[in-house]
Amino acid sequence: MPKLISLSADLKEAFQHLILQRTGLVIRPSDRDSFAKKISMRMDAVNFISPQDYYLLLESRTQESKEEWQNLVALLTNNESYFFRDKEQIHLLQNHILPKIIQKKQIEKTIRICSAGCSTGEEPYSLAIMLQELIPNYKQWQLSVFGIDINQIAINSARKAIYSPWSFRGVSEVIKGQYFQQVNQQYQLEPRIKNMVQFHLVNLVQDEFPFNDIDLFICRNVFIYFNAPAITKVVNKIYHALNPDGYLLTGHAELSGQNLSQFHRLSFSQSLIYQRRKEGEKQQEIRQPLTVKELTIPQFKPIKPAKTLPKPITVKTDPVPVKKQPIISPSPIKKEPVKPTVNKLLETAKNFIEQERYQAALEQFQQILDINSNHTDAAYWIAQIYANQGRYQDAILYCERLLKIDSLAIAPHYLLARIAEETGKLEEAKYLLKKIIYLDPNSVAAYLDLTHIYTQEGDERRAIKMYQESLNILQMLPPETPIVERGNLTASQLLLQLS
Q1: Dihedral angle at the C-alpha atoms of 224, 226, 230, 233, nearest 10 degrees?
Q2: What is the pLDDT, as a whole number, of residue 289?
Q3: What distance in Å separates the CA atoms of residue 385 and residue 382, rounded to the nearest whole number?
Q4: CATH number assigned to the domain comprising residue 461
Q5: The predicted structure's pLDDT at residue 70
Q6: How many other CB atoms are there within 10 angstroms of residue 472's CB atom?
């Protein structure tokens, strides 16, 4: 066990500045104790007694220094990974982004994807598997996946493509059996997948990328290690590496507050993704419509019967003239059409959503509200469709309408929090998420969203606390409990995904 060294404030700051300068990695206040331990470990490994001498080694440009940087970086970065990590973003890639890229590339039949911060290779290999799954005639295509990382030890492991069972948590036995061969207690990736992926040692901040013409650049849970100038520098490099209309996918809320004028923002229920703008194009924020399977039906608490009828809540619309009926009606020439029931209108609206006819669905939901102004499901569907289309003010109006009906309803509070987070109003988002936790102490989604916000703000103490609370709740819930705000994943599935 190495002896823990004592670093003066000046020397600690010097180490942190040097690491930031060379790698872009920020040592946050909550990590400073563990940082001193890691410096001690490396000093012990290379037989240094003086931290000043070790600093001079890192500062030099010798081969010995280069090798030591690799060992230090391996300690400073998190190499935790597993196949098909973050089911929501995997769903987004598999069902939206990759099919669009494949459709666009039908003629030239060339796709190039980069996985930055690839660690031991699970993410780039997952992408390669998805491409083969989505392209039946993949042998006629040129499919290239690049895995890049600052950690040479992780890169060496990735190139071997041998994994323990822990890398497959949440992966179906079908995928494991189709693409891996079991060797003793480990799993060897099939050559047809392994050969699709190239690994490169790359310092995102310092190095030039060894490729260009990228269709999809994935950089998840990497920017959390960088400060704002480093993020700006790396995002600019990614922009120039992408094809026109190429995509950038990051971890949740990692680029919140950054100037991303070079990109269009595409908002899906699972994640935000950025698309490179062509020269001269104006920046757009596009809310992608969702299929009915992705929309969630809220669960509202039953409304207690009031002693007096509540006043109907109305949305400002142009007045519709009402035609007065004569006292004596003439004999009808034809029968009046039977007015549709609420249930029939609801069924029709959901069919329209399935067909992606969102305007038609909105008209059906509005008819329901004309019949029953307090119909919570219809009002929430309208709010969610508006939010998915980026019509945030309209969505907010309907959320407020719902809260007038039931001030304790979780679903509109959560949608308001998502809108606030999406529009950069993080203080408002935090207030709403804390209110949700007050109303429902077992709201896993609220704790996870707060985790993302606090991580983005650099408040790791609170982020860790929120993350741990979400894990505690998931462990207490019955395994099959659906988590509505997380695509109806069960508690056990989400726990596996987060672990």
Answers
A1: -30
A2: 40
A3: 5
A4: 1.25.40.10
A5: 87
A6: 13
* pTM: predicted TM-score of the whole model, two decimal places: 0.58
Q: What is the pLDDT of residue 293?
A: 34
SS in 3 state form for the chain? Answer: CCCCCCCCHHHHHHHHHHHHHHHCECCCHHHHHHHHHHHHHHHHHCCCCCHHHHHHHHHCCCHHHHHHHHHHHHHHCCCCCCCCCCHHHHHHHHHHHHHHHHHHCCCCCEEEEEEECCCCCHHHHHHHHHHHHHCCCHHHCEEEEEEEECCHHHHHHHHHCEECHHHHCCCCHHHHHHHEEEECCEEEECHHHHCCEEEEECCCCCCCCCCCCEEEEEECCCHHHECHHHHHHHHHHHHHHEEEEEEEEECCCCCCCCCCCCEEEEECCCCEEEEECCCCCCCCEEECCCCCCCCCCCCCCCCCCCCCCCCCCCCCCCCCCCCCCCCCCCCCCCCCCCCCCHHHHHHHHHHHHHCCCHHHHHHHHHHHHHHCCCCHHHHHHHHHHHHHCCCHHHHHHHHHHHHHHCCCCHHHHHHHHHHHHHCCCHHHHHHHHHHHHHHCCCCHHHHHHHHHHHHHHCCHHHHHHHHHHHHHHHHHCCCCCEEHHHCCEEHHHHHHHHC
pLDDT at 454: 87
CATH assignment at residue 51:
1.10.155
**Is residue 464 packed enough to be buried (19+ CB in 10 Å), middle (13-18) or exposed (0-12)?**
middle
Please identify, among 23, 45, 76, the residue that sits at the C-terminal boundary of a domain.
Answer: 76
Query: In sequence order, what are the beta bridge partners of 214?
Result: 242
Write out the residue range of the structural domain in which residue 24 sits: 9-76
Are residues 17 and 97 located together in one domain of the fold?
no
Q: How far apart are CA 207 and CA 35, in angstroms?
A: 25
> Domain check: are 134 and 260 in the same one?
yes
Q: What's phi and psi for 198, nearest 5 deg? A: -115, 135
Q: Are residues 173 and 110 in the same domain?
A: yes
Any domain includes 399: yes
Q: List phi, psi (to 5°) of 264.
A: -85, 145
Q: Does 129 share its domain with 268?
A: yes
What gap in Å lies between CA 271 and CA 313, rounded to an integer?
33
pLDDT at 338: 52
Q: Which residues of the chain have pLDDT under 50?
A: 1, 287-336
Predicted local distance difference test score (pLDDT) of residue 455 = 82
